[in-house]
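Tokens for chain A. Residues wanted.
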């Protein structure tokens, strides 16, 4: 009897299958990791751009880049999801009111800076929606009502 016995090839199949499964698993993980890193880089670039636009507008209290990335991601999040829809208009109108609820709620003349932040976000994250939103908010009444 020989000192080395050869096992039939079917005994080693589980090793080959395991190696293939691990290889495919690592490839999938690598692909998702690369995609996530690329999205994070784009989100950080857009957050930096938004901060610079807000600084140019004269904003004094700015969110951090990390806060912007978490809220807006790399695509603007909910703000860029049809910013002139009826729900978005209703939300904007409710923010430009006297603060009462129910029948006491009344619209107010908002400060000229009331929509500048939203315009900045749309400009950076979804510039294709900017003209529609500008034409919508240009019909609202503004005045310098907040002391600076």
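Reply:
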């Amino acid at each position: 009897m020989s000192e080395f016995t050869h096992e039939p090839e079917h005994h080693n199949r589980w090793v080959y299958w395991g190696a293939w499964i691990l290889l495919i698993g690592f490839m999938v993980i690598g692909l998702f990791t690369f995609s996530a890193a690329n999205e994070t880089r784009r989100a950080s670039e857009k957050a930096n751009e938004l901060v610079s636009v807000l600084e140019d507008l004269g904003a004094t209290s700015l969110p951090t880049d990390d806060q912007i990335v978490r809220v807006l991601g790399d695509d603007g999040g909910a703000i860029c999801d049809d910013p002139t829809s009826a729900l978005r208009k209703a939300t904007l109108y409710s923010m430009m009111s006297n603060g009462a609820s129910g029948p006491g709620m009344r619209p107010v003349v908002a400060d000229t800076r009331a929509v500048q932040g939203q315009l900045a976000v749309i400009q950076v994250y979804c510039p294709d929606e900017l003209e529609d939103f500008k034409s919508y908010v240009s019909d609202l009444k503004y005045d310098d009502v907040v002391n600076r």
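The longest strand covers residues 110-111. The chain has one domain: 9-143.
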